[in-house]
Amino acid sequence: MALGITPTQGEVLVRLLEQGTELRLGEIAEGMRLTTPTLSEAVKTLVEKGLVKKLRDREDARAVALSLTARGRNAAKRATA
């Protein structure tokens, strides 16, 4: 994938695109069969690159939800094309 991201990071982008809404970090980790700490490192890079933004979950303030930025949505669409 262009943008210099890993396959794991690309999968996070695609999952968020397919869902069409924000997802909790734990939900994504579970779906990818990864631990939350393992996925947290991948997400950190996506946030730094401006592809994903972290939000406080609306239902549980302790949880972190993820959402695509416009740039992240474009990258995910290119990855699935």
UniProtKB/TrEMBL annotation:
PANTHER family referenced in this protein's UniProt entry, alphabetically: HTH-TYPE TRANSCRIPTIONAL REPRESSOR YETL (PTHR33164:SF43), TRANSCRIPTIONAL REGULATOR, MARR FAMILY (PTHR33164)
Query: What Gene3D superfamilies has UniProt attached to this entry?
Result: Winged helix-like DNA-binding domain superfamily/Winged helix DNA-binding domain
- Any one GO BP annotation for this protein: response to stress
Domain HTH marR-type stretches: 1-81
Ordered alphabetically, the record's keywords are: Plasmid
Protein name, entry field: HTH marR-type domain-containing protein
The UniProt record lists the keyword Ligase? no
Organism's domain of life? Bacteria
> What molecular function terms (GO) are annotated for this protein?
DNA-binding transcription factor activity
Q: Which PROSITE patterns match?
A: HTH_MARR_2 (PS50995)
